[in-house]
Design a protein that fits this description.
The complex is a heterodimer of chains A (339) and B (293). With 339 residues, chain A is an alpha/beta fold. Chain A has helices at 15-19, 26-39, 66-73, 93-101, 120-128, 145-157, 174-185, 203-212, 234-243, 252-264, 275-283, 290-300, 304-313, 322-338; strands at 7-13, 43-46, 81-86, 106-112, 132-138, 162-166, 192-195, 217-220. Chain A is globular and about 65 Å long. The model of chain A has no long low-confidence stretch (mean pLDDT 95). In chain B, 38% of the residues lie in helices and 26% in strands. Chain B starts with 7 loop residues before the first strand and ends with a helix. Chain B is α/β, with parallel strands linked by helices and 293 residues long. Chain B folds into two domains: 8-127 and 273-289, Rossmann fold, CATH 3.40.50; 130-267, Dihydrodipicolinate Reductase, domain 2. The model of chain B has no long low-confidence stretch (mean pLDDT 93). Classes of the chains: A alpha/beta (339), B alpha/beta (293).
């Protein structure tokens, strides 16, 4: 059977930053970049969890900026394409230009799934430079397949080389993914990307479903090291895809070695599907909120689950970590009144 | 219509959603009388609406204003940043003052709570940005009291329908302009501005401030912030303090919400209402202090 080539997009050093509240160190970046490059992973994404320019009190301060991370990693990525991520409103053309100067190969420009036109300026700009640019729609459970396909089409019109949709809260079931891939593919010609999270234990299944439906670039993290309950676990994904006959160009033993190194040398701990992660998945709340929600729940002496349910009800998006505090205050006051 | 004996005469250029909302506010003002509304297209919705409100209108853009013999002291430019430079060149030659509601960044920055008589030396008034108008009153008061503030972060969240395409293509400029303005009004050395656009509908304009510095007496800070909010309330009725927390020893967190007055713009467009309110404040100051110039 003639199966397609699937490109693995490794987000360990970007989504994984969410798992450690943006504290991945310079040494960890250099080591992982060097090891990943030897495995033949197509893209290695690096950055603060929220991308270029995002280091902040609002979403966590990283010890070095995303620009500095890219500079450090560049010499160690000889075969893999070095990639980064940016959200308009958080990073600007300033940071983008420095990344280009420092030799970034690919950039993801992200926007909330209904706000694709926020990417217009940046995608158009990058398309004119020789940088591979992907437009990605995050929190994509908050749009219907049709809406998502329309947004994808808009992003394609700006000159993006690929279009992606993220299950940022790990909310999807496989059928949700199929519908969206099919809808998007009916509207665009460029390759489609899918990014899974594991809040409902569905990351691998959803990723495989996406690929079967026609996705060509699949996001994954070593050991699943990513926000909340983590991402699709790269080494598992490669094992499954190889067995299904897809061409990953990745030797299973090599990626297993990478996983071992990530565990033993780098302390990239495999996330678990914790109770809070299940709730955030069910409620459709961005996985990256987890550390803040847990901390504030503890400080305010209220239930983390209740915070997540309320964040879901209010349709909070990534970047709105401020709502966690507001909700906590309201819940604390409600609790006081009930006593 | 105003009953004050000597309102100053003003002109509105650009009867879009923001301009029409401004007309309602001008109607309420005893110090302002709008003598002409300039639009592009005679059949445009904006001109029609202004006519229905009882205002004299003309189509043909700024050239129509030049051709008219209208007597006025002040113009509101509610068009587009790309048009403003030309509008300013024209109005400056005519000896008129301008309040710029576009993000062109050309003129003299105004924040009502920081207003002083010296501001009247200018002819072109620039209202910075919605984030700037929301944050600077609080940050300026805090930085005057505490000179140890080393860093501030401003994150605004606006409702998707209140953020048009022009704004979306100029997010970087919004960030740079607002950061520069905060530095200019507060002397805080390190400033970071970010923004979110929310599709959860409707939500009021949300303004988050993180303030970092040593030796900031939290109780004193609270009193100051409450005072700043009260001052802003005088011209922005929908400006409300939500949260004021000490997150760490050197880290204060403030959140504010701005609901619009629903003159024409929807309630959730607090980001646009705060600019319009600041524009009216500035115009009324001109009327009081320097009406003939």
């Amino acid at each position: 059977m003639n199966k397609r080539t699937i490109k693995i997009y490794d987000s360990t050093l970007r989504d994984g930053n969410h798992a450690v509240y943006q504290q991945i160190s310079a040494e960890q970046i250099i080591t992982y970049a060097r090891l990943a490059d030897q495995v033949g992973i197509h893209y290695v994404e690096i950055g603060h969890g929220n991308g270029l320019g995002a280091s902040s009190l609002q979403v966590g301060q990283s010890p070095i900026s995303t620009n500095e991370m890219l500079k450090l990693a560049r010499p160690h990525l000889k075969k893999s394409r070095m990639s980064t991520f940016m959200l308009p409103g958080w990073g600007t053309l300033k940071e983008l230009n420095v990344a280009i100067e420092d030799g970034v190969d690919a950039v993801r420009i992200g926007a909330h799934c209904t706000e694709g036109n926020l990417t217009e300026r940046y995608i158009s700009y990058l398309a004119k430079k020789s940088v591979e640019v992907h437009g990605v729609l995050v929190m994509s459970h908050m749009a219907t397949p049709e809406e998502l396909a329309n947004q994808a089409s808009i992003i394609e019109s700006y000159g993006a080389h690929a279009i992606g949709f993220f299950d940022s809260s790990g909310h999807f079931l496989p059928e949700d993914v199929t519908l969206r891939v099919e809808a998007i593919r009916s509207k665009v010609k460029i390759p489609v990307i899918f990014h899974a999270h594991n809040n409902l234990g569905m990351a691998i299944a959803n990723s495989v479903e996406a690929i079967d439906a026609g996705v060509e670039i699949i996001d994954a993290c070593i050991r699943g090291f990513g926000a909340g309950a983590g991402n699709a676990q790269s080494e598992v994904l490669v094992a499954v895809l190889n067995r299904k006959g897809y061409i990953t160009n990745i030797d299973l033993d090599k990626i297993l070695d990478l996983a071992e190194s990530a565990k033993n040398e780098l302390n990239f701990n495999a996330p678990s599907v914790s109770t809070e992660s299940i709730v955030s998945g069910v409620a459709g709340v961005f996985s990256g909120f987890r550390p803040q929600v847990i901390k504030i729940a503890k400080d305010f002496n209220i239930s983390a689950r209740d915070i997540f349910y309320e964040l879901g009800r209010r349709k909070a998006i990534a970047g709105q970590e401020d709502m966690i505090i507001e909700i906590a205050e309201i819940l604390r006051n409600t609790k006081k009144h009930e006593l | 219509m105003p009953i004050h004996p000597n309102p100053i005469k003003v002109v509105l250029i650009g009867p879009g959603q923001i301009g029409i909302d401004l007309l309602y506010k001008i109607s309420r003002s005893a110090l302002l009388e709008c003598v002409l509304v300039i639009g592009k297209d005679i059949n445009g919705q904006g001109i029609k609406h202004a006519e229905q409100m009882g205002f004299k209108t003309k189509a043909g853009g700024i050239d129509a204003l030049i051709d008219s013999n209208e007597v006025y002291q002040l113009a509101f430019d509610a068009t587009d940043a790309s048009f403003h430079k030309h509008h300013w060149d024209v109005l400056n030659k005519l000896g008129k003052r301008v309040i710029d509601l576009t993000p062109s960044g050309i003129g003299h920055m105004i924040v009502p709570t920081e207003f002083s008589a010296a501001d009247m030396n200018s002819k072109n008034f620039n209202l910075i940005s919605c984030g700037g108008q929301a944050a600077i009153p609080i940050l300026a008061d805090l930085s005057r009291e505490f000179n140890t503030i080393e860093y501030t972060e401003l994150i605004t969240t606006a409702s998707s329908p209140s953020v048009g395409r022009a704004t979306r293509l100029n997010i970087d400029e919004y960030i740079y302009t607002t950061e520069a303005a905060i530095k200019a009004f507060t002397q805080i050395p390190n400033v970071k501005v970010m923004l979110n656009i929310s599709a959860a509908f409707p939500i009021a304009f949300r303004v988050i401030l993180h303030v970092k510095g040593i030796d900031i007496d939290f109780e004193k800070a609270k009193t100051i912030v409450l005072g700043s909010v009260r001052k802003v309330n005088e011209y922005v009725p929908g400006y409300r303090l939500l949260t004021l927390e000490k997150l760490e020893e050197d880290h204060i967190y403030i959140s504010v919400e701005v609901n619009g007055q629903e003159d024409f713009l929807p309630k959730y467009a607090g980001n646009l209402d705060i600019i319009n309110s600041a524009a009216i404040f500035t115009a009324e100051k001109i009327a009081c202090l320097n009406p003939d110039l």
